[in-house]
Amino acid sequence: MADQTSDADAVRAKLAELKLALNTDALPYQLEKMFPRLDGWGVKGEIKRRVKLIQQVEPQLPEMLFPNEKIYYIAKGVQHSIIEAMTIGALWSNMINQTVFILTNLRLLMIRSNSKGKPAETCWMIYYSEITKFKPTLTGVLDLKLDDGKKIRFTGFPKLDRKTMPTIFEEALETYRERGFEPSCTQSREDLCSDCFAIVPKGQFHCEKCGTTFWTPGQVAIRSLIFPAWGDMLLKHRALACVELLGLTVTWFAYELL
Fold first, then answer.
1. How far apart are CA 43 and CA 15, in angstroms?
2. Cβ(136)–Cβ(161) below 8 Å
3. In what order do the strands lie in the sheet containing 151-155?
4. Are strands 142-146 and 98-104 parallel, antiparallel or unpaired?
5. Do residues 199 and 208 make contact, with C-beta atoms less than 8 angstroms apart?
6. 23: three-class secondary structure by DSSP
7. Deepest in the core among 24, 62, 70, 251, taking most CB within 10 A?
8. pLDDT tens column, 99-151
């Protein structure tokens, strides 16, 4: 415990030296895990990048966390989707699947974001007990196999995150399994309400806690058929919707000129 306290103090000192601030009084950051490197070439830029990312999600964290839940690590990557890469292209799939990953002592939290890490309105969580297989690769890809059979691939992490996240992930999984904590859930990757972050059970599109109602896949699909950009606007895929609108506009002008 003394070593952990010393490491956390070293992180605080480094943040103060760089004139950077995090809400360490209100949020249970495990600073010694979140900032594993404090010296060496390029470390100042790395710390500044990490603090900037953390500050983007800090407003959401107090309401997202359970009592006694601790934050181990925060990074930004991409939730890889083969289906979306095939249907809309790898570039657009990568853009709309930008995600901030928050590893805690209890679960993995995920918040959809823009390319700079600013949170969007979609978020999920996975209890560690729902992860049956965890496989990091040398190229920085993280593959998860979940208890309900789903497979999720994460990519696009910066170099330091690619090296650090697997270690923290494995430590969290091991500790979690030793405790035998297996909370009930409706699916391995649970949807969270974008307003209050309560779990929205599988197949439901209404938050019982705050009353928020969400679009169903069928409603989005129908609107996409009527007007392609409409569905993406509902899902907050604004960049993709703008491209679709531009494509429709160009097509219309070309048709008028014929």
1. 12
2. no
3. 131-136, 142-146, 151-155, 71-80, 98-104, 107-113, 119-127, 190-192, 199-200
4. unpaired
5. no
6. coil
7. 70
8. 999 999 999 999 988 888 888 878 999 999 999 888 887 777 888 899 999 98
